[in-house]
Sequence to fold (329 residues):
Amino acid sequence: MAGKRILSGMQPSGQLHLGNYHGALKNWVSMQDDFDCFFFIADWHSLTTLYEDPKLIKNFSFEVAVDWLSSGLDPEKCTLFLQSAIPEHAELHLILSMVVPVPWLERNPTYKEKQDEVKSVDMSSYGFLGYPVLQTADIVLYKAHAVPVGIDQVPHLELSREIIRRFNKLYQKKVFIEPDAKISDVPKLNGIDGRKMSKSYNNAIFLSDTEKQITKKVKAMLTDPARGLRTDPGDPDVCNLFPMHKIYSPKEMQAEIDSACRKAEIGCGDCKLKLVETLLESMRPKMENRKEIAAKPKEVDEIIHAGTEKARKVARATLQEAKTAMKIV
Fold:
């Protein structure tokens, strides 16, 4: 399996939160021993929402790198790099954009969903419409065999596969590999208000939060909306808090809380305090590790620079192969 290449990226459009960790980062850490992993900071993709204030991206990129390293990504085992430092991404994006029909992009469900979801920024840009093309360039430059995704992201990868098939057929050479979807089992983890945990919703618990901030956020979490009084029985199955207990609390505690909640033997406040205890116990090692890593920005920059140099050699060779197939070099 060591020969199989995995590629994935994260946008530095804000600080990483528990949803990012359990949705992707934790899975990346587990794969780095078994696959040839390339993970990139997708800073050009962040311009789709941060184009009005792009100076934020550099700082967020550093924070993402710190979160990666403190969570267990090892630069000796995987390649960590910065998208914008490899111009081949932009050049291949341009080339692919010439062969992708516009209706393919317009049918992308995320295009409309994101516009409805994010009201603070005008998302009707050419760049956002075409982001799947840049995403495809990101993947194929490294001849990735698989891309780790949640089940809801499989249609996005299928669009990339369509673009790859069209390019290979047009130029009669299998330049690019059609990557498989490596399905991740992503646990349900909503934000403190019950909606999907998101930076844009201001409902996230960040990997960079202090113990005080985490405690405050957990205490503010939405619980069973039908439980108006302490004496009312609750339902953990509809409680926004309980899925986090399933991740962070011991099985015995989960069972006790489930039973006590249904019998109104425990209040939501007590339940939150138990979660604070188990959540912080789990997060403390990474929080301490993060402080140490963030205090050495030069070392972080050197790690990303070294990974970028390695990644660019691969990207340069692939782009040359694509241009040769097109007979434009």
Notes: The radius of gyration is 22 Å. Residues 225 and 239 are 8 Å apart (CA to CA).
